[in-house]
Write a structure and sequence with these properties.
The structure holds two protein chains of two kinds. Chain A is α+β, with helices and mostly antiparallel strands. Chain A has one domain: Cytochrome P450 (Cytochrome p450, Orthogonal Bundle). In chain A, α5 crosses α7 and α14 crosses α16. The longest helix of chain A has 25 residues. In chain B, the strands form two sheets. Chain B has a two-stranded antiparallel sheet. A two-stranded antiparallel ribbon of chain B has the order 2-3. Chain B is α+β, with helices and mostly antiparallel strands. The model of chain B has no long low-confidence stretch (mean pLDDT about 95). The chains are: A alpha+beta, B alpha+beta. Chains A and B meet through α4, α5 and α16 of A and α1 of B. The structure holds protoporphyrin IX containing FE and iron/sulfur cluster. Chain B: It comes from Streptomyces luteolifulvus. Chain B: GO terms for molecular function: 3 iron, 4 sulfur cluster binding; electron transfer activity; iron ion binding.
């Protein structure tokens, strides 16, 4: 690849990525289909850095790149295709989350958190998820439709559970709520978002100090207790880990709840099947994750050596790669008729939770929460319907994690 | 079929437990715990799916 992006000579003719979903909101960007046929390893401009990167749209290539340890997640590498605004001169000073690190730094931090998301822990959390969901649905029913499902259910459920999981007093739920609402809010200014992030950092910083002094039965206390055994980590690293968990664990599930409700309501026959036979729900949720791929452009890497892709194309050391998991999840070579939402398809192998050593550690927590939410919502409010046409909903077209600002529903 | 797991490589995704609950579990440290080294025929398909979906190929299947 040439350095054209820096000189600006051809930037104008290259598509700027990530693309948005304005053409068809309940789909991955429609341009992927033509790209996969014409230029499956496409030279594009990465919006946030203004530099060139490769956009991959074939399942095989995305799987290969995400599974290859020589494809780095190190955000300090100058070729890394950042998805957030990061001034280049600040790169050495920013406290990046472990999602943006390679082993061994990544391994040490990830191993601090994975004990919190084991199958056993998630099974233990499930009754509490059910109670939270029931209470929110009681509140919706008491209020009467139409209501905004984002504000009533999608945002409160994961944020309340996260608050409890971390060991924050539920009276501080407002921090989590405010954080999720501001960072997902359509009308939030840059200052408001920066303010919410700073507020969250300060809150987590104090909370971790408190948990170190007076440990309780919660995630942050357990992680803080392990800190002395980790000579390479300090208090600030714990704050960074906690912040990553909050960012990665609240909006994401909230967005799948709201978008997923819309998708189910747009497919009433399949919804009826799931309602009649709840054993279909886990498969339907995998299909939903594949179909929505809300973090399509979160899986980015930079090559630390030359690699060859499935069509013989080469990515050279130092070049950035957008391994678009949504494009992979809509590759007809892997999932025939990918545009069809089909709960009977085997969505196994989808990469909505990524693949490789960064694969989402919260996947089974998200799966459990989604199962409780959808399993409860559609049975307790069988007459649920959209109170606005699906193609006119306020989608988050410009957000990193795709979602809905609001979802008006009634019954 | 005979299964083995590489706990050093494991990143604790929990995918194997999701696909084949009776065969895999997670140790309290978050990493994989093999429950059944030689799964029955009935668990064969689920075990193969789990192995194929391990994001870091930490599960080996000897299908002799
Ligand atoms: C449906 C909801 C979710 C989706 C679609 C999702 C998706 C993803 C994706 C695509 C990545 C990988 C990025 C990469 O490969 O570079 C990731 C990483 C991560 N996710 Fe999730 N996630 C979800 C929910 C959660 C939850 C509930 C948690 C909470 C604990 C969580 C915590 C994390 C963390 C900590 C990482 C970084 C892992 C690493 O770099 O090793 N996620 N997630
Ligand atoms: S699927 Fe692989 S990485 Fe995930 S827990 Fe099982 S063995 Fe570990």
């Amino acid at each position: 690849m040439t350095e054209n992006a820096e000189t600006g000579s051809t930037t104008g003719s290259l598509p700027v990525f990530p693309l948005d979903r304005r053409k068809c909101p309940l789909s991955v960007p429609q341009e992927y289909e033509a790209m996969r046929a014409d230029e499956p390893v496409a030279e594009v401009v990465n919006r946030m850095t203004g530099k060139q990167a490769w956009a991959l749209t074939r399942y095989a290539d995305v799987r290969q790149v995400l599974g290859d340890p020589s494809m780095s997640s190190n955000a300090r590498n100058p070729g890394y295709p950042h998805q957030f605004q990061v001034p280049e001169e600040m790169l050495p000073y920013i406290a990046f989350p472990f999602a943006a690190m390679d082993p061994p730094e990544h391994t040490v931090r990830r191993r601090m958190v994975i004990p919190e998301f084991t199958a056993k822990r998630i099974a233990d959390l499930k009754p509490r998820t059910q109670a939270i969901v029931d209470a929110r649905i009681d509140a919706m029913l008491a209020k009467g439709g139409p209501v905004d499902l984002v504000a009533e259910l999608a945002v409160p459920v994961p944020s309340l559970q996260f608050c409890e999981l971390l060991g924050a007093d539920t009276e501080h739920i407002s921090y989590f709520r405010n954080y999720a609402e501001t960072t997902t809010g359509r009308d939030s200014s840059m200052e408001a978002v920066a303010g919410a992030i700073a507020e969250m950092d300060e809150f987590l910083d104090e909370l971790i100090t408190e948990k170190t002094r007076n440990p309780g039965e919660d995630l942050l206390s357990r992680i803080a207790a392990k800190l002395p055994e980790e000579p390479t980590l300090g208090h600030d690293d714990l704050v960074a880990i906690a912040r990553l968990l909050v960012i990665a664990g609240s909006d994401t599930t909230a967005n799948v709840i709201s978008l997923g409700t819309a998708v189910f309501l747009e497919h009433p026959e399949q919804l009826d099947e799931v309602r009649r036979d709840p054993s279909l729900l886990p498969g339907a949720i995998e299909e939903l994750l594949r179909f929505l791929s809300i973090l399509d452009s979160a899986t980015v890497r930079v090559a630390t050596k030359d690699i060859e892709l499935s069509g013989g194309e080469t990515v050279r050391e130092g070049e950035g790669v957008l391994a678009l998991n949504g494009a992979a999840n809509w590759d007809p070579a892997r999932y025939p008729d990918p545009h069809r939402f089909d709960i009977h398809r085997d969505a196994e192998g989808h990469m909505a939770f990524s693949y490789g050593n960064h694969m989402c550690p919260g996947a089974n927590l998200a799966r459990m929460q989604l199962e409780v939410v959808f399993g409860t919502l559609f049975t307790r409010i069988p007459g649920l319907r959209l109170a606005a046409p699906a193609d006119e909903l306020p989608y988050m077209f410009d957000a990193h994690a795709y979602g809905l600002h609001e979802l008006p529903v009634t019954w | 079929m005979r299964i083995s797991v590489d706990r050093e490589a494991c990143v604790g995704s929990g995918n194997c437990v999701f696909f084949a609950q009776g065969v895999f579990d997670q140790h309290p440290d978050g990493r994989v715990l093999l429950l059944v080294g030689e799964p029955d025929e009935g668990l064969r398909a689920a075990t193969l799916t789990a192995a194929a979906n391990c994001p870091v190929q930490a599960i080996s299947v000897n299908d002799a």
